[in-house]
Write a structure and sequence with these properties.
4-stranded antiparallel beta sheet, 6-stranded antiparallel beta barrel, 3 domains, flat, alpha+beta, 334 residues
Length: 334
């Protein structure tokens, strides 16, 4: 299979074949598809916590807000905040949702680019009529209408149920780790130390200390928003670059996974091991499946392993006196 064309359904089909639950070409029953997809997403969520399964770093280009030192990072769906979806009517070729009921007070209007500073809430619907990464451009609570950044691709059958996100200050997917960062100002890049711990950050006596841009940061990996605490407080809206681990994100059956070589095989085998417990009950997982899944996982971890850092020493500390004829004047002590 060509790299970049693996879908969630391809992974599920491969995993079910490996446990002899379905044969090649046999259609998978809808309940089995949905249950397997749920298991796959749980697996991906778990693998995202393992640094050695993360294959890349995502550069997020954001903007500091002048005089703000605490930033909420994330774009959680409203259910994580204890909020309910709303209902409305969609019309093919129109960006307007009409007849909105249960109008959400937390809905955010903004730019049409998802996951960027100033973007609106991202919308998804039950009937699948809203294109991916469609955001809210504007709304009129009095008229019960919401204007989207894209047109609906069909007419809703009655009311459609719509979910939405509530963007934070940095509305990127909430990262598990921030690995590097810098501020770009006048075409120059100034390093942001993102490795501060909670203890180190609390040692700053005056946390509201102003500066042209932050120099250090402590990332508090809370839910549903991560909290980025910075020092010094930025004095302008300079460009901020944050590098985060690529998350193995939630998928739909038709989602395309763009992954390096080796990931498709590893995910199929790891998913097969998970599905064995669901389909075969208490029977022991075959030793060959255990062996192959462990082998495939080890290949991935070896690919992503970082080489040990090479120690560097001051030349004055390690050079010998043999080539230095001046040692006779100082006896080797200087």
């Amino acid at each position: 299979m060509t790299i970049g064309t693996t879908t969630a359904l391809n992974l599920i089909q491969g995993a079910l074949r490996k446990i002899n639950s379905y044969q090649s070409g046999e259609p998978i029953a809808t309940p089995d598809e949905l249950d397997s997809l749920d298991t796959l997403n749980d697996l991906l969520d778990s693998l995202s916590t393992d640094k050695q399964f993360i294959f890349g770093s995502q550069e997020n280009i954001l903007t500091w807000t002048a005089q703000q030192r605490l930033y909420k990072i994330g774009n959680p769906v409203m259910t994580l905040l204890g909020l309910a979806p709303f209902a409305g009517t969609l019309t093919a070729g129109s960006p307007v949702i009409t007849g909105v009921t249960n109008f959400p007070a937390q809905l955010v209007a903004g730019q049409n680019a998802a996951y960027t500073v100033g973007s609106g809430s991202i919308l998804t619907d039950v009937q699948g009529l809203i294109p991916a990464n469609t955001t809210v451009l504007s709304f009129n609570a009095g008229a019960n209408t919401i204007t989207m950044s894209a047109n609906a691709i069909g007419n809703s059958a009655g009311f459609d149920q719509v979910s939405y996100t509530v963007p934070g200050d940095f509305p990127i997917p909430r990262p598990l780790r921030i690995t590097h960062g810098f501020t770009r100002f006048n075409a120059l890049d100034f390093t942001l130390d993102v490795y501060e711990t909670e203890t180190q950050y609390t040692e700053f006596l005056y946390k509201a200390q102003p500066g042209p841009w932050p120099t250090v940061a402590w990332y508090n990996n809370t839910m549903p928003y991560g909290l980025l605490n910075v020092y010094q407080t930025p004095g302008n809206s300079a460009e901020c670059h944050l590098f985060t681990d690529t998350l193995l994100q939630n998928l739909t059956l038709t989602s395309v996974l763009v992954m390096p070589q080796g990931y498709a095989r590893s995910l199929k085998l790891l998913l097969a091991r998970e599905l064995w417990l669901e389909y075969m009950g208490a029977s022991q997982i075959p030793s060959m499946l255990e062996k192959l899944s462990r082998e495939a996982a080890d290949y991935i971890k070896a690919l992503n392993a970082k080489p040990a850092a090479v120690a560097k020493y001051d030349r004055e500390l390690v050079r010998g006196n043999r080539p230095d004829g001046g040692w006779i004047t100082h006896g080797g002590y200087r």
